Amino acid sequence: MSYIESQLLPGEAIKYRGHLHRIIFLPAFVFAVLAVLALVIAMQSGDWPLFYGVAVPAVIAYIWAQILHTTSEFAVTNKRVVFKVGWLRRRTVETMLSKVEAINVEQSVTGRLLGYGSIVITGTGGTAEPFRNIGKPFEFRRQVQAQVSATEESQRAAVRAIETAAVHPLREERDCPYCAERVLVRARVCKHCGREIEPLKT
Ligand SMILES: [Zn+2]
Fold first, then answer.
1. Please, which residues have CB less than 5 A from ligand 1, an ion?
2. Domain that holds residue 188
3. What's the gap in Å between 128 CA and the centre of ligand 1?
4. Residue 169 has what pLDDT?
């Protein structure tokens, strides 16, 4: 089970997941290319310390990036935005959708070309540090905004329902004694089965 799944509140569901971009493997890639060159040189000159001096960092950089990639999670749920980066030194940010004031994407030129960027969430409590190297950052932002507006819409609908009930108390319903379908308390004829019924209010 992922970190975010283990942290879900009752009634909370994950709507979208983001990921770190493969750019975090760049140091490992660079060292690997150098290691191949060093290997060619070593086979001709016998300079093996040079090869190990590049190959060992390549392996370490790869393992580091792999751990970072698998332990970092970014998710939008129907209640919150959750970021978690790192394994031993863990950094998490959880913001309720209702507290999200702005979500900004910062992209370098390479980020724009390769499709990664930093995401900064501004909540009512202030701006958090950016989370870097996130793949498809604009899609992540779009998903957050979609959930924020869905939350606002359901809150407005709940307010409207309360207001409607206050303005139109006679829209109350009851069960039809014959067919058990819902009818208005003032109904004289059931709209479902057509039988005459005694209105509870007039
Ligand atoms: Zn009926």
1. 176, 178-179, 190, 192-193
2. 170-202
3. 58
4. 66
Whole-number Å distance, alpha carbon 172 to ligand 1 midpoint, is 16
Counted domains in the chain = 1
Q: How far apart are CA 82 and CA 16, in angstroms?
A: 11
Burial of residue 19, with CB atoms counted within 10 A of its CB: 0-12 exposed, 13-18 middle, 19 or more buried: middle
Is 187 contained in some domain? yes
Rounded distance from Cα 36 to ligand 1 centre (Å): 82
Distance of CA 96 to the CA centre of its chain: 11
- 150 in any annotated domain: no
Domain-located, residue 32: no
Q: Is residue 184 part of a domain?
A: yes
Q: Which residues of the chain have pLDDT under 50?
A: none
Q: What is the pLDDT of residue 166?
A: 74
